[in-house]
Amino acid sequence: MANDNIRSLNEARQRVWNEANRLLDDVARQKRIMSGVEEQQWTRYNERLDEIDNVIQDLVQRDKRAEVEGATREALERVVGPIGATTVERQQGDSLRRWALGEGPNELRIDLTHPMRVAELRRTGMSVAEAEREARVMNWDTGSLASGVPTKTASELYQLMAASCAMLSLPTTKVMTPDGGGAMKIPRVNAHAIATQVSGQGTTLAGTDPTFLSMTLDAYKYGELVRISNEALQDASFDVAQFLGGNIARAVSRLVSNDLVLGTGSGQPQGVVTAALVGSNGTIPTGGSLITPSYENIVDLVYSVNGSYRASGNAAFLMRDVTAAQVRKLRDGAGGTLGAPLWSPSQVQGIQSGEPGQLLGYPVYTDPAMASCASNAKIAVFGDWSAYFLRQVGPLVIERSADVFFGSDETAFRGKWRVDGDVVDLTALNIMRQNVT
């Protein structure tokens, strides 16, 4: 049923997009700029597209949660049977509530390894059930939360985090390391090897060796503190897992997302936008301080990275929502004003791994940390995202304290997540900057 609703929304979005295209076609055919009324109509089309996208994303999250629950239940039933599965699920919910009310250790450790692996397998086209089986999760918690939380709860929290952090959705290289969190050195490509052609027998092979530098991934700590009344915790209808995800996991991941995009690399992760990305020929300018991206700019950006990166399967765009709305206007002819649209709305968003819309055949991901179109702003990143290493140290930790807000009869919950990130190959990604040079 959820997939049927999403298909209907995808079809509605396509109809709106077709109407918007007709408006652009009329303007282009008459070789004029949009009138004030047409600009307003174009804005309404984009607002409607964004509105439909938001509804789809909400349904996607619900659908993913239902799929995870179904796949987990199915696998659990194979182990303990239907009645046993019901008992285990009830014990899981009860134990989580008892923990929130003060039973057991103060620290709840949420291992994200499994849901991260499932998400990666989902990007290959697997269903949730297939990905769950491939990840080989047979670790069922029967009530005690001393060593972690049920797999289903961990998956739900990770989905909420991924919805708030584009880097978790992009095909970045994700590295999970133990709790120690010491500095981790990784070789960084400084220059690739270049072979030399050999034309005669007995000629000594020559060429240049690749050169490497190194980068260090640390473990910067991110946290969020929230409070909830004890009456709510005691209410049997109160969803503890949803509260933890909505108020802690999502808040922490939003802050992490900002630093993974804009971080300085000093006391925080190295953001992809602030890294010294060069692609093949340096930053791609749009051609003017107040000129929005053109068809030629987008093409230049795509071809500013090596063909092997473009064909890796990990190539994608990252930009802000409002920039994506701008490029919806671009065509493949007459300098971007005539011909077929460059942007292709996804017809299977939310059905096949939440596949996003595409630009020139590459997925487009959005993040609010990316700059809007403005003079000298870095407005888009394109390339092979496996070159960005995202290090996560240990699990997401949620701690409980009944003492901090004792006077108001509330319990405090503090979430902590240790993360770092950096680009291992600066030639694999490149940036579009809205500037003349």
Provide a quick synopsis of the model.
By secondary structure, the protein is of the alpha+beta class. Helix 1 runs antiparallel to helix 2, helix 2 packs across helix 4 and helix 2 packs antiparallel against helix 5.
Describe the structure.
With 437 residues, the chain is α+β, with helices and mostly antiparallel strands. It is 40% helix and 23% strand. A hairpin with an 8-residue loop joins strand 16 and strand 17 (410-423). Helix 1 (2-29) runs antiparallel to helix 2 (36-100). It starts with a helix and ends with a strand. Mean pLDDT is 77; it is low at 137-148 and 348-353.
Protein structure class? alpha+beta
Percent in strands: 15-25%
Strand elements, count? 18
Across the major sheet, the strand order is 8-18-15-9-14-13-12
| End-to-end Cα distance | 51 Å
Give the uncertain stretches in residue-range form.
137-148, 348-353
pLDDT average, as an integer?
77
**Rg calculated over all Cα atoms:** 24 Å
| Relative helix content | 40-55%
What is the helix/strand order? HHEHHHHEEEEEEHHEHHEHEEEEEEEEE
The geometry reads as globular
Supply the number of helical segments: 11
Largest sheet: 7 strands, mixed
